[in-house]
Amino acid sequence: MSTNHQPAYVALYELLREEIRSGARPCGSRLPSRRTLSRDRGISPVTVDHSYEMLCEEGYAEARPRSGYYVIYRESDLFSRPESLPAPRVPAPVPVVSRESFSFPSLARVMRRVLSEYGDAILVKPPNAGCPELREAVSRYLARSRGIRAGANQILIGSGAEYLYGLVVEMLGRERIYGIESPSYEKIEQVYRAKGVRCDLLRLGRDGILSSDLEATVASVLHITPYRSYPSGVTASASKRREYLAWGTRPDRWLVEDDYESEFSLLRKSEDTLFASAKKENVIYLNTFSRTVSPSFRTGYMVLPAGLLPLFEKRIGFYSCSVPAFEQYVLAELIDSGEFERHINRIRRSDRKAGSGRITGSSPSSDTAGTDPEFR
Q1: Among 313, 311, 288, which Cα is nearest to 298's?
Q2: Cys staple from 340: which of 93, 178, 323, 334, with CB 3.0 to 4.6 Å?
Q3: Domains of the chain, first to last
């Protein structure tokens, strides 16, 4: 079933996803059993397991004990579905070095190469938005892995998520109300309040912000973590992501997509981001390297829609880049050499072998939900 060098489990996932999206498999319908589907398609039951895990992770289906897999995605009834709150989750403890971090020998090898090739350039103050080498590398990486088509001029490098949250306020303004998930990574609210803005806490259900809270909020900026929000471990379903985009279609509304840890999705290529799916240019995309490379790499990036660039230049374009050039060159080399993506793929393969625990939103490195925010 593999096509164009695509693994069989990914091809089956995409086939079932399109059948669900088109309505051929409506909400509430039961998916074929793994044995039936493997026999009919001539593939192994393990392949079916991986495909179903991906459908569950992306919010298209759910596993029901001793019953099977059922479609939960729906196109209609936005803001009107009955929802429930998620069960409390226990945050994962903070390890000294994450299992997902690069090994020291690998990083040391790249650092030596950068020192040799860049020489005195590592002592030069980087441009305000970041070194072109890293911004261009991130642009290419996002196009390959996250479906984001953004030029290097749309990418801003900054020292971690907290710094970038502050820049969002400086750019969009303090007079706005910012809607954030409740519960959420505590520093999101702390940074916003420290910047002098009002926050509206929106309750999380089992697949994202409750529709009733989303419809009622007076916020004009919505900050969301669609994938495994900390500390709840909640992943926004495909239906909920559409709901977020629908919320953003009203005038003067902005979405801040905090895509932290999405690289560790079971999918070989993760579900398209809100940034890539939005018809309006009103989604700001954020991510960092502190989880995927090392907690000591306090480097993040923000992707702006092209239409926001003039406002960015006017309000915060004068800020100096807060990340040393050496660190940026190392990250650019990791991405362009392919080592970054090979590292991500190794972690994904390890997680797939670990079984179906990820279906319920558990951490790839523990049985507890969400990844400790210290990695941001």
Answers
A1: 288
A2: 334
A3: 1-75 (1.10.10.10), 104-340 (3.40.640.10)
